[in-house]
Here is the input.
Amino acid sequence: MNMWIPTEHEKYGVVLASFRGTVQHGLPLEIGDTVQILEKCEGWYRGFVLKNPNAKGIFPCNYIHLKNAHIKNKGQFETVVPTEDSVITEMTSTLRDWGAMWKQLFVKNEGDLFHRLWHVMNEILDLRRQVLVGHLTHDRMRDVKQHITARLDWGNEQLGLDLVPRREFSMVDPDEISVTELYRLMEHRHRKKETPTPVSTHHLFVHLKSLMSSNLGEELEVFFFIYDSRENKPLSERFFVKLNKNGLPKFPEKTERQCTLFVDLGSGDLRKDVYIVVHIIRIGRMGAGEKKNTSNVQYRRPFGCAVVSIADLLTADSKDDHLLKVYACNTESDWSQTHDNIIKKVNSRYNLSGSNTGLAVALQLLHGDIEQLRREYMVLFTRGVSITKKLGFSDVIMPGEMRNDLYITLEKGEFEKGGKSVARNVEVTVYALDTDGQILKGFVAVGSGEPGGDEYHTFVLYHNNSPRWAELIKLPIPVDMFRGSHVRFEFRHCSTKDKGEKKLFGFSFVPLMQEDGRTLPDGTHELIVHKCEENANLQDCARYLKLPFSKSNLPGNNQTVKGTKESLWITSFLCSTKLTQNGDMLDLLKWRAHPERISDSLSKLKEIDGSEIVKFLQDTLDTLFGILDESSQRYALKVFDCLVHIINLLQDSKFEHFKPVMDTYIESHFAGALSYRDLIKVLKWYVDRIIEADRQEHIQQVLKATEYIFKYIIQSRRLFALATGGQSEEEFRCCMHELFMSIRFFLSQENKGSRPITQTQAVFLQQFPAVYGELLKLFTVREVATFVRETLGSLPTASQADCPLEAVKLHCITKTVESQLYTNPESRCILLPVVLRLLQAHMQEQRDLVTCAHILTCMLSLLKKDDAEQTASEEVDLIVESVLGVLLRTILEVSNRPQPAGPTLRPQVQDVTGEFVSCLLALLRHMKDRHYQQLLQRFTSKDDLRDFLLHIFTVFRILIRPEMFPKDWTVMRLVTNNIIITTVLYLSDALRKNFLSDKFDYKVWDSYFCLSVIFINQSCLQLETFSASKRKKILEKYGDMRVMMGCEIFSMWQNLGEHKLSFIPAMIGPFLEVTLVPQPDLRNVMIPIFHDMMDWEQRRSGNFKQVEAKLIDKLDSLMSEGKGDETYRELFNSILLKKIERETWRESGISLIATVTRLMERLLDYRDCMKLGEVDGKKIGCTVSLLNFYKTELNKEEMYIRYIHKLYDLHLKAQNYTEASYTLLLYDELLEWSERPLREFLSYPMQSEWQRKEYLHLTIIQNFDRGKCWENGIILCRELADQYESYYDYRNLSKMRMMEASFYDKIMDQQRLEPEFFRVGFYGKKFPFFLRNKEFVCRGHDYERLEAFQQRMLNEFPHAIAMQHANQPDQTIYQAEAQYLQIYAVTPIPDSQDVLQRDGVPDNIKSFYKVNHIWRFRYDRPFHKGTKDKENEFKSLWVERTTLTLVQSLPGISRWFEVERRELVEVSPLENAIEVIENKNLQLRTLITQCQTRQMQNINPLTMCLNGVIDAAVNGGLARYQEAFFVKDYIMNHPEDGDKIGRLRELMFEQAHILEFGLTVHEKFVPQDMRPLHKKLVDQFHLMKSSLGIQEFPAYVRASPIHFTNGSPRAGRNSAPNIMNPEGGARVVSRRSPLSYPAVNRYSSSSLSSQASNEVSNITGQSESSDEVFNMQPSPSTSSLSSNHSASPNVTSSAPSSARGSPQLSDKHKHSRENCLSPRERPCSAIYPNPLDPTQRPVPHPAGDASMPRSDPNISTPDKVVKPAPSSWSLDMPPSDFNGKGPPVPPRPPYTGSPAKTTRSQSPVMTSRSPQKISAPPFTPSPTECQTTGLVSNSPVLSGSYSSGISSLSRCSVSEASGTENTSTDHALPNSASSGSDELIRRENKTPPPYSIHERNNPRRQVPLPPSLSIPPSIDAPPIPPKPHQIRRQDTEPRRPDQFPRPRPIPRKVSQL
Here is the structure.
C-alpha cells in the first residue's frame, strides 16, 4: 500500500473544475477555489481550501492547476503565498472579498452600487488578463497597474473596506517598513483620495460647428482670439476657420481646421474681463447688396463680431454647445472696436447682425499640462486639433523651448484722397522678403488652423482714408533668414466700377534686423508711405531699402518726407529664444570686440530683462568666466556680482526651470579651472564684511547664491585638480577652512544695535544644507559632518522665541536630516547630538511643531527594523533620552488643544498629531530590552517614573481613540496596537516593582487598568466582525491581542493583593465590559476576577452589595449597546458558581449570581426584541418584564423609571394610548405634590416635583382621552383641579373643569368598541425567557376577533406551531426545543357588579365596566360525565369552567398580563340548564325593550328570537329539560337538587310569560307581510304552553314583571315612550339568576330546529342559517370539543368566535346583523361613572318598595340564595290597569342553591378581585319615570341558534352580571337604612381600581386606589380652599383610616428624578 508523502514544491494551486468530494475523505471543491496542498499519493492530493482551512480532505491532482508559491513558517503551521506579481495577488483576494459583498448589495436593494461594482469587477478582470498574458510594454504595464489600483481603491472605499498602503502599485508589508514611512504612505493615499492637486495651467478647446444666418451666400473667414479687456490687448494668436456659402466649414474632412486648443492660459487668465472674441469677414462684393455682374473681384469685408466671457465657461456644462449672438457695427469705421463696444455695452455703436444669426461653437476648458491632456483626451489629439499659442512666452519658460515668431499688428493708416472726390477703398497686401528681394513662401500666417501663405490682404473699409484694421499676422521666419529680411506693405485702391481693379498707389517696408544685430524693437512704429503706382518699381528691393522706412529714425533735415500726411502704423512683437533686441546684451556677449566697454556691460547686466538673460544663459556664463580668467584682479568683484545676479534670477518662479540648464552647464560646459580661488576670496571678503556692514541687502543677495557659488568653486577645483594632478590641495583646504571659520564667526554673532545681522544669518542657513552634497565631492563624510556640526553648533542659543532665526534654524535642520550626508551612519552619529539639541528645544517650547514632526519622521525612517548594529542601538538610545519625554508631552498637548474654529486649520493639526504619533510608535518599535532598562534607570525618583508612566498610558489611550486615524486605516491601527501591547508588557514590570506594597500608587494602577480595558474594547480588534480572510491574516500576523492583554490584566490583578479593595467597585464596570467581548479565552481569563472582588468585598464589609449594585448598573447599559450573548450568561453563571463552591459566603454568592443571570436573561430578551423589524407586542411584553424585574427584584428606581419611559414610547408608537397612560402613571405615583426641586432627568428639565407631577398628569389625561378611557381621565382631572383650587389658580381650574365636562360629553356621545380577550399559552424552550412556558391573557385590538388575533400571533412568532386543543399541555411540550402557541377566547368577569346591576345606568356607561379593570377571565369546556343518553344528552352534559386570575388587571401597562392562578369548577347539567334559560330570558327581554324603544330598524331580530325559542320548545327544547330533570328518578336520585329543580321550573314558566308578552309586542310592530308568521308563532306558543303543561301561569309568574336592565331612575333623561306594555306604560324589571356569571355565554347549539326557522330565514331574505344571521357563537374551544352534538343544516353551531362583529361582513348581511348584534359584538361606548356626581348617587327606595340583593359573581354557587316574594301582576292585565305605574316585583318560590361540584382547583379558595360589596337597596323608579333608550350592551349572546331555546352543550362563556332580584317587602330597607357611612364605603369599594404595579399580597386582591386616581371620601360641597402652605402642611397629617394608603413599593429616593 502506497503512503501519503508530504509535498515539497506542489504547495499551491487553483481548482480547474468543481469536485463533489463523494469519495471517502473527499474534499468538495468549487471552480476557482485556491487550495493548499499538504500531501500527495498516486494521483491524489490531500489539503484544504484556503477559505476554510479547518476542513481537510483529498482531491484528484488533475483538478488542480499548480502555481509557484513561497512557503513561510515551513512545518505544521506553514503558510503559502503565491510567487506572482503582488498586484495580481491583491486583485485576486480583493475580488473574492468583493464577490460576497456584491451579492449582499443585491439583497439590500442597493441597485446603483451593485451595477457599478459589477462593471468595475469586470474591468479589473479584463485588466488582470492583460497583465497575466505579459505582452504589455513597460509603460503600458505601468498604466494598467495604475488603473487597476485606482479601481481597487475605489471599490474598497465604496464598500467601506480598508485603505491599502502601496508603493509603486504594490502592497507594502507594514512590518517591512518604518512606522513613519507607513504613516506617510497612508496619509499620501488618504490625501490623494480627498483633495486633488490644483492645476495652474489651463487650455481652451474651441470647435466651430457652423454659422446660422438667413442672408449668407458668400464665403466667410472666422477668427477667434482671447482678449483682455482690462489691458485692451489680445492674449493669444488668432485661430482661423474658412466657411463656405452655407455657413459650414469649407474643409469638413480636416478636423484640425475646425478645432483648436488655446494653450498655456494661466489661472490669472480665467477672469471675468477676459473674453473669447470672434471676428467674421465675408469674401465677396464691396457692398452686400450689389448685383453679381458688377465686378468679378472679391474683397475681404467686415461681417460681424461675437463675444463670450471665459468666466462663463467655468460654470457652464462643458459638453453644451454655445450659440453666440453675432453683432454688426453701425459705422464701418468703428469695426476694429466692435468687440470693445459689445463688452462695454455701448449699444449705439452695434446691433444684431440679423434676428436669426448665430455662431454654433463647442467651448470647453481643460486643465493640466499638455502632456496630461494628450493622455486623457487621446481621441482629441489623434483626430487632429490645431494649437493656438499665447502671445509671447507662457508664465513658465521651459529650457529647450524653440520659438522665433514675429507678430505684426496692422493698426491703422492715414492716406490722402489722391485727387479723388471721395475717400479711397484701401487694401493692404503684406509680403515677407529675404535679402535678395525674393518672397518668403509660406511665412505669412493669418492664424492657426490654416497653413501659412505667401501674402496677406487686409479687409477693405468702404471710402475710408483713415482705416483701422487691428489685424494680427505672424511671421515665423527662421533665425538664419532673419538678417537682411524685410516686410513690405503695398497699398491699393479698390475700385467699385465695372472693372473692379485694385490700383497700387504706395508702399511701406520695415527691415527685421538692424545693422548691429539687434532685431526690430517691440512696440508701435509709424512707417513712411512711399508713392508708387507701378508694380515694376517694386521688383528691385535694393532701390527702396536705401530709403528711410520709419518716421522715427529720419534725419532731422528730411522735412519733406516727415511732413507727408500718409503713414502706416504697425505694432511689432518678437517672441524668440535666439534673437535679442537688447544692445547691452549684445555688447556683453561681444566683450572681446570692445574691451573698454566691459565694465559698463557688467554693470548694465542687472538691468537687462531676465528673459533675455536666460535665452543666452550659457553664452552669458561663458562671457563672465572668460572675463574672470583674463582679468581676475580687475573685474573679479563685478563678475562675482553678475554671477550672483544670474543665480538669483533663476530663483524666480518664471525661470526656475532653467536651473537644470545651469547644472548641465556646470557639469559639462564650465571650464574655469582657476575660478575657485577668486570665488572663495570674494565670498570670504563678503562674509568678513557682514558684521561691519550697515546695509545687509547686497550681502544677503550674495548669500542667497551660496549653493551655486559652491558648485562653481567645487567644480573649478575638480577641473584644476584633474588638470594638475591634484596640486595645491593643502592651499585649497586651508582656504575652505578659513572660509568656514569666517562663516562660523558671523553665525555666532547676536543682534547688536540696528544691524539686522539675524536676517543675514537666516539667509545663509537657508542655503547652507544645499552645500553639503558639493562638499562631499572633495571632502570625506566625517570632514563634512564636522563642518556642519561646528557650523550649526556656532549658532547663538539664547534667542527670543519669536525670532525669525529660530524657524530658519529648524528649516536648516530639516534639510540636514533630509540630505545625503545624514543618511550615512558614519556622519549621522556626528550630527545627531546637535540635531536633537535643536529639536528638543523647539518641541519643549511647542514651536514649529509641523517642522519638528517632519524632522523626527525623517530621522526615524532611517532606522531599519532589523538594524542590529551597535551604532543603530546607540542612535535609539540618544533619541529616547532626548525626545521621548518631550514627544509624549507634545502629543498630549496637541491632542488636548482646543481646535480652532477655522475648518482649514484642522487638517494641519491632524497632520501634526499623526506625524508625532507615528514617530512615537516608530521609536517604541525600535526599543529593545536594553533600551527600556536604561530608560527606567534614568528616573532618579519615583515621582519622575510615576509621571512618565501616567504620560505614556494617557498617550496610549489617545492613540487608540477611534478618531485618531481615519476609519479605513485598519493596517495602521493594528501596527499601533501591536506596539502598545509590547510596550505595556515591558512597563508592567516597572509598575509591579515600584508601585506595590507600601509604595502603592492608585493613580498609576488605575491608568494602567483603564488603558487595558479600552485597548481590549477597540472596534479594530473585534475579529468576529471581520471577514474570514481578514481575520485569518490578522491572527497570522499579530495573534489575538485582546487575549494577550486580558492575561496581562489578570496577572497584574493577582499581584495587587489587599490593594484590590481600592478598585472595588470602580473597576467592576470596565472589567465587566471586557468579559462581554465575545472571545471565549478572554472570558475564561477575566470572569474569575469577579469572584476575587466578591471575596475581598466580603472580607471588608461582610457582604458584596457594592459588587452587586455595580454589576447590575453596568449590565443594563452594556447589553443595550449590543454586548453579551447567551453563551456569556451561561459562562458567567458556571464559572462563578464553580469558583464559590468552597466559600463560606456561598449562599449569598449563589443569590447574587442568580440575580445577575436572571437580569442577563431579561436584558438579552429585551435586546433581541428591540431589533429592527420586531413587532411592537413583543417589544412591549419584554419591556414590561424587565421593568417589573428592576422594581420587584432589584429595587433600582432610576432604571425602573427609565424603562417606564421606554415602555411609554413603545405604547405611543403602537397607538396604545390607554396603556401609555397607565405606564406613565407609574412614574406619576412616585411623585408628591411638593415643591422639592428635581434634577434634569431624561427629557425633563430641572423643575419642582409639583411641576413635574402636573406635567405628567396633563400628559396622562391627554392619552386617556386619545384612548377613549375618559372615566380614568376624569379622576385625574379632579385631582389636578383640587391642586389648582388649593393654589387659587382659577384660570387652570376653569380649563380643567371644562376638560372634565368634555369627558362626560364624550362618554355619552361617542361610541367605544368592546375588545375581545384571548388567552395565549407560550410553550417550549425556544420562546424568549419572559414568555417561556407561561400563559397570558391579551386584550385584542378594535374589531380583532379570534382568527385575526391567532394570525397576528403566528406572524409575530413565525416558527411557532398552533395547538389545536384547549387542554393543558404535558411536560414534553414544556421541554420541547420548539415554539407552541395555544390560543382561545376568554370572557371577562367584571368586578364592578354594582354598576352593571344598577338599574337605570345607560349601556354605554356599563360597557366600560364590563371590559375595564378586569382581573379574572372565564373559559367553559363542555363534556359528558357518565353514560351519554342518546335520546336526551342534557342528562349528562357537564361544563368544566376555568377561571384565570391575572397578576395585573386589564387594561394596564401592557395589552397582556401573565396568568397568576387557574381555578377549575365543574357545573352540573341542572345548573347548566338554569344558566341557559336565564340567559335566553335576558336576551328576550333585551330584544323586546329595543323593539319597544324603537332602537331596531326592523323587527326581524325579535321575530327570529321568538321563532327560535318557540319552535325549539315545541319540538322538544324545554321538554328535554323536563324529561331530564323533572322525572321522578332524577328527583329521587338527587334530593339535594330540589331547590334547583324548582328554580328551573320557575325560569321555564318565566320564559313562557316573557314569550307571551313578546308576542304581544311583536303583534304591534310586525309588518303586514309577516302577519302569517306571527299567527304561526302564536299557534306554536299555545302548543308550547300545553306541552309544558301550562294552562294558566302561576300567580308568582303572572305577577312578575319583565325587568329590563335599561331602566332609568330619573325622568326626562331620554324622551322614549313607555316601554314594556305594547301600549306603553309598564316598566319591566329583569330577573337575574344567582348562578349566572357576568358576561356573555357562547357554545355550540343543539340540533333542535323546526320548519319555522327556515321560513323566518326566507322571510327576512337571509340565505344563511339563523345562527349565521344572528351570529350565535360557539365555545372558544375547537370543534372537536363539540363534535358529539350536530347542528341542523340550517343552524351553524361552530362559527369561530373571532368572527363576531367582524367589520368585513358583506353588505347584504349587514342590516340584519347590526340589528341583532350582542353586546360582545357590537361597537359601543365604555363609561367610567363619576362616583361623586350627585346626579348619579343611589336613591333609597321609598318604604314599601321591594328590593332584591344583587348577585355577586365572586360568590360561589352555594352561597347564593333566592328568597320568594309574592306578587299580583301579570301579562294578562289590560293596559289600563297599569295607570302609569311601574309593575310590582313578582314573588319567587323558595329556592335554596346546592353547591356546584368542584372537581379540581389550582387555588384552595375562590377569591374575589374586588373588595366585598355591601348591599344597598336598588333603585325603584317613580311611577312617572320613563325608560332609557339606547343600545343594550349587556345583553347576552345565545349559545346556539335562535331556533333553539337551549343549547345541547353548556355555556362556554358567561352572561354579564346577572343576579336575583329579591322582591320580598319584608326585606325592603327604609330610607334610613342607607346611612352615609355605608353609602361612602359602598362607593369606595365599588370604584374599580386603576392599574398599579405593586404586588398584591391580599388574597382577596383588594387594590387601593393610588392617590393619583383616588376619590375624596366626602360627598359634601368642598369648603373654601385653604392657602397653599396649609395644603402642604395637611399633607403631612396622618391619613384617615377609611383612606387606603398609596402603595410605595420603592424606597423614596426619587427626589432627584
